[in-house]
Amino acid sequence: MMKAYLILEDGSVFEGTSIGAVKEVVSEFVFNTSMTGYLEVLTDPSYAGQSVVMTYPLIGNYGVCLEDQESSKPHVEGFIVNELARLGSNFRKNIDLEEYLIQHDIPGIQGIDTRNLTKIIRNIGCMNGMITTTKYENLDEVMKRIHAFKVTGVVEQTTCKESYTIGTGDKRVALLDYGAKANIAKSLVKRGCQVTVYPASTPASVILKEKYDGIMLSNGPGDPEENVQIIEEIKLLASSQTPIFAICLGHQLMALAHGFKTEKMKYGHHGANHPVKDLETGRVYISTQNHNFVIKEDSIDSAVAKPWFINVNDKTIEGVTYLKENIKTVQFHPEACAGPLDTDALFEEFIKMMEGK
C-alpha cells in the first residue's frame, strides 16, 4: 500500500496509507462526528473546498448505496479516516467506498490517528492542509501553497446550471440552489409541493413573477459574505411578503440581507448529533449540521427578528424568526440525510406558512 501524508498549516504531519485517487490536493480541513452517512457527507455540496476527517474509527462498512447521494457527485476535496472498510456489507450496496473515491478522483488517507488530528483542529481551529503521496524533505514551499489556499467561489461551483421542476403537488415552491442537498426538494415533494429549483444567481424578479406559494433558500458552501449580489436579490425576495424558509447558508444569507452580521467559527459544526433548543417551546432536538459560519447574536436587531433556536452546547444561533415578514430560517438541516429526523416537522411549519396559518 502506498504511503500518504497529511500536512497541516501548523506544521503537523501525519503519515498513513493512500486511499482513493492518488493525487495531491490542498484544502481546508474540518472534522465530522457522524457515525454513519459518509456517502451523504461526501456528496453534500456544503463541503466544497474542504477535506473531511471522520471521527468514527471505521468508515465504509456498508459500502456505497448510490440512491443515497445528496447530489450527483461528491464535493469534498479529500477524505481522512482511521480505518477504511475494504468490503462493504449491505444488500443495497452498489460499489465499495474505495472504488467510489477512485471513480470520482478523491484522494484520502487511512491509518492515521484521527482522534489526535481532531483534537488539533479543535484546539487550533479550522486550518488548511495538504494530502499528498510525496514525502517532502523541505516543507517551506509546501507551506506557502497551504497558507495561500482560500475557499472561494464555491456557490457558483455547486449550484445547478439551469432551472428544473420536480413533483406535482398543490403548493408551488421556488428553491434557490446555493449548493442544495437533494433531500430538501424531496422533503417538500413528499408533502405535496411542486418544487422548481433555480440557479443561485437567478434574479428575484424571475422568481417573483411566477407568484410561488413559497420560497426556499438552500444550504451551500463557503463564506456567506462573499455572495454580495445574491444577498441583494434576497432583500427583494424578503420584501415581497412571500413565505420563505431558509436552511444553513440560506439562513446566513437572509441574516446578511437584513443587515445582521456573520462570523467564522473556530472549527464549525459538522455531524449528526448536535442538540438545538426551540426557544418558543423549550424542547431540545438532535440535529444534523454542516457549517463553519454563524450569525452574530449581538447583530440581530430585536425590532426586525428574534432567535428561534440556539445550540445547546455553545449557545450559538440556530434559527431566526423574522417579525415583519413571513420568514423563518434555521442553521441546521431538518431534511437530515444522514442524521436524525427530529426536526423534519419544520417542513410542515413551512407548509402552514404558505397556508397562512
UniProtKB/TrEMBL annotation:
Record pathway: Amino-acid biosynthesis; L-arginine biosynthesis; carbamoyl phosphate from bicarbonate: step 1/1; Pyrimidine metabolism; UMP biosynthesis via de novo pathway; (S)-dihydroorotate from bicarbonate: step 1/3
Residue ranges of every copy of the Carbamoyl-phosphate synthase small subunit N-terminal domain listed in the record: 2-132
Active-site residue list: C248, H333, E335
Enzyme class: ligase
InterPro entries found in the cross-reference section: Anth_synth/Amidotransfase, CarbamoylP_synth_ssu, CarbamoylP_synth_ssu_N, CarbP_synth_ssu_N_sf, Class_I_gatase-like, CPSase_GATase1, GATASE
Database matches in SUPFAM superfamilies: Carbamoyl phosphate synthetase, small subunit N-terminal domain, Class I glutamine amidotransferase-like
Molecular function as annotated in GO: ATP binding; carbamoyl-phosphate synthase (glutamine-hydrolyzing) activity; glutaminase activity
Task of the protein: Small subunit of the glutamine-dependent carbamoyl phosphate synthetase (CPSase). CPSase catalyzes the formation of carbamoyl phosphate from the ammonia moiety of glutamine, carbonate, and phosphate donated by ATP, constituting the first step of 2 biosynthetic pathways, one leading to arginine and/or urea and the other to pyrimidine nucleotides. The small subunit (glutamine amidotransferase) binds and cleaves glutamine to supply the large subunit with the substrate ammonia.
Listed name of the protein: Carbamoyl phosphate synthase small chain
Organism annotation: Thomasclavelia ramosa DSM 1402
